[in-house]
Amino acid sequence: MTDRITTEELPEWDKPRMEWRMESPCSTFCVTVARHGKSDGNGWCVYAYVRKNHRLFDALNVGHFNCYDIDVISSMPLHGGCTLFEPVLHTTNSNDWMSVKFKQGDIYAFKIGCDYSHFHDDHYSELETKEDAWSIFFDAEQLFKHLSSATSIP
After folding, report:
1. What are the pLDDT digits (tens) for 68-95?
2. Angstrom distance (rounded) from CA 97 to CA 86
3. Which pLDDT belongs to residue 113?
4. Dihedral angle at the C-alpha atoms of 68, 118, 147, 49, nearest 10 degrees?
5. Rounded to 10 degrees, what is the CA torsion of 25, 146, 127, 42?
6. How far is the first Cα of the chain from the last one, in angstroms, to the nearest whole number?
7. Is the dihedral of CA 89, 139, 45, 23 positive or negative?
8. Disulfide engineering: 87 pairs with which of 10, 65, 92, 107, CB 3.0-4.6 Å?
9. Adjacent-strand bridge partners of 112
10. HEC string for the chain
């Protein structure tokens, strides 16, 4: 087997992307705003990464990835509701010297997101900068506050 490929076999480059991140003080979650390439609608999305040590992690770890059936997601302030829910997996095994042990494939976070490509969201496609997209960043801050104050499972 060889790693050599011809120019005709080169894969496509990822779509261009800009991302802003807000990390929780204890690193139990973060919220990001991403602007992907415009070929998939207008490209703006808000994501929350809820990590294993967050108090809502167990309520998200229900064995399926249908976000409409999970109460803690239904209560999150997501524009148009949840449009993405997926596990984030370890890609390697932990080393012997690490205090936290994990295996490749173990879930260490859940990515929960929403996009701004719904019916009547056309105006978002005109937003080019963070300053233009102030309402999306406001939504992201509301999600951050929600995850910061989440103390119990609904």
Report:
1. 889 999 999 999 999 999 998 877 777 7
2. 29
3. 95
4. 80
5. 110
6. 53
7. negative
8. 107
9. 48, 85
10. CCCCCCHHHCCCCCCCEEEEEEECCCCCEEEEEEEECHHHCCCEEEEEEEECCCCCHHHHCCCCCCHHHCHHHHCCCCCCCCCEEEEEECCCCCCCCCCCCCCCCCEEEEEEEEECCCCCCHHHHHCCCCCCCHHHHHHHHHHHHHHHHCCCCC
Q: What is the mean pLDDT of the segment spanning 93-98?
A: 74
Q: What is the pLDDT of residue 152?
A: 45
Q: Which two tokens stand for residue 129?
A: 């900068």
Give the contacts of 90 (CB within 8 A, at least 6 positions apart): 102, 103, 104, 105, 106, 108
Q: Give residue 23's pLDDT band: very low, low, confident or very high (50, 70, 90).
A: very high
Digit-coded pLDDT (tens) for 119-137? 888 888 888 889 999 999 9
Q: Which amino acid is at 139?
A: D
| Torsion, Cα of 75, 80, 83, 85 (10° steps) | -20
Handedness of CA 101, 104, 105, 108 (dihedral sign): positive
Joined together, the tokens standing for residue 153 give 């499972």
